[in-house]
Amino acid sequence: MSDYFHYRGNQLYAEQVSLTDIAARFGTPCYVYSRAALTESFRQFTQALQGHEHLICYAVKANSSLAVLNVFARLGAGFDIVSGGELQRVLAAGGDARKVVFSGVGKSAAEMHLALDAGILCFNVESAAELECLNDVAGNMSKVAPLSLRVNPDVDAKTHPYISTGLKQSKFGVAYGEAVALYRRARDLPHLRIVGVDCHIGSQLTEVGPFIAAAEKILALVDTLASEGIRLEHIDLGGGLGIRYREETPPAIADYVAALLRALRGRGEKLILEPGRALVGNAGVLLTLVEYLKYGEEKNFAIIDAAMNDLMRPTLYDAYHEILPVRREPSPQSSPASGRGGEREMQSLIYEIVGPVCETGDFLGHARNLAIAPQSLLAVLSAGAYGMSMSSNYNTRPRAAEVMVDGDAVYPVRERETVAQLYAGEKLLP
């Protein structure tokens, strides 16, 4: 648990605001973010990078809420995007297009057009076919597109296979052995301008070693390109630094950056980093209400009002999120008339934390020891990254509300959806 989400006595707080008060005001499920936590994580990057020309491009896919993007824009961040929609979000949030890098294996011609028109910093090109398409789009617009190649260094990130992106079998990036030839081709195309090189080996990395192994291969490539007269303005070493969900021991931001800067010692190229989870992961929690307690011979279930559509990571990755009661002290015995399992006195038991979605895989936590009762509030920690951004409307469930805490103030930053909004664009047959 971060310093920005903490107990005061028996009540869990976000900065100076009780999560109980937030739930009463905005309902549940509800994502709660700490502005101070967002600011502090960004500050740690900027402080560690002092003395080396750099740009921190927040990976928008981790959390694309406008308020989160705006906090980083005000701090001077750039942005790493993977779709035209994310570009439009960045611009709507006050982001500077000149600090945007565009990654992703499937950029459409329309998205390229949008990004060129906005004047982004760089396209991270991921295939020979994309290279040709970008040249054609730029030519049709009478523009020159700035680009780097995303090079796959074939380094094992030692993370979940779904979020490991730097191996030979990955769909991402250009094969390391093909990179020089593709840079030569880019140099010959009239509507392209080579500005850098990019790599990204995965997400939720908890060791420095894979980062350094990838950086060393990329730097060797940079030297090879320089020997052919292709000199780069920036080196983009991606993101992927992990956070602590349970027992992980990721390096501190300062140690991670220091290791990269040692590898870059004596080089003048600008360093671009693309942190996502490391900036937002522990800056948010998901508030949820216990609806029912269900007792069985083998397992007990705490059925909550949040579900896999609100937080997909446990179902998708079997990911662990710490789950804490918002109120720690035991309450008096609930009334049996509640009809919600209240006939049992609240005591510490082992529960499966499950949602109402009609899937066996709808869970947020297994075997959690909690003292709870119906109508207890729970906080799912480390939910700032890949929570709201991966949420859906499965089972026709409106997506959660989002709020931002700033000291002792709370600001609603996304209203809870209504069911009517979900089908507003649909039509019946005549």
CATH topology of the largest domain: Lyase, Ornithine Decarboxylase, Chain A, domain 1
* Assigned CATH superfamily of the largest domain: Lyase, Ornithine Decarboxylase, Chain A, domain 1
Through-space gap between termini: 55 Å
Count of alpha/pi helices: 12
Q: How much of the polypeptide forms β-strand, as a percent range?
A: 25-35%
Radius of gyration: 23 Å
Report the top-level CATH class of the largest domain. Mainly Beta
Strand segment count: 21
Helix content: 25-40%
Please give the CATH architecture of the largest domain: Beta Barrel
Structural class: alpha/beta
Query: How many domains?
Result: 2
Describe this protein with a few key phrases:
TIM Barrel, Lyase, Ornithine Decarboxylase, Chain A, domain 1, 430 residues, alpha/beta, 21 strands, 9-stranded mixed sheet
